[in-house]
Amino acid sequence: QVQLIESGGGLVQNGGSLRLSCTASGDTSGIYAMGWFRQAPGKEREVVAQINWSGRTTSYADSVKGRFTISRDNAKNTVLLQMNSLKPEDTAVYYCKSDTVWGRGTQVTVSS
Fold it and tell me: Which DSSP letter does residue 14 get?
């Protein structure tokens, strides 16, 4: 069983930056692609960014392209999400996902 723990969320001003981290523990041998998702109040959960096992292939939601960067360190079983030029509309709970396993989420709040 894999467990995913997110960290790095918080309150930041419009235009600021945050870096989210997701660390996997347990049986990580089957972890391949990983991704970050977010859910704002009253909205459906949406994909933010995804990365394959090697880290060479990434994809982003149009709303975050050019501002967010996903990366991974397989030696540490960690996936990072660097978020720059944050906007109030980025406010949401951010979740890490691997296959069918979800983390509990970390709150990101961007003040205007």
Answer: T
Distance, in Å, from the CA atom of 94 to the CA atom of 48, rounded to the nearest integer, reads 9
**Residue matched to tokens 């709150």:** 107
**What's phi and psi for 95, nearest 5 deg?**
-120, 145
Strand order of the sheet with strand 2-7?
Answer: 2-7, 18-26, 78-83, 68-73
> Tokens 């709303």 belong to which residue?
63
Using CA atoms, how far apart are residues 70 and 80, in angstroms rounded to an integer?
6
- Write the pLDDT tens digit of every residue in 1-56: 889 999 999 999 999 999 999 999 888 777 789 999 999 999 999 999 999 989 99
Half-sphere exposure of 97 (CA within 13 A, CB side): 15
Cα–Cα distance for residue pair 20/25, rounded to 1 Å: 17
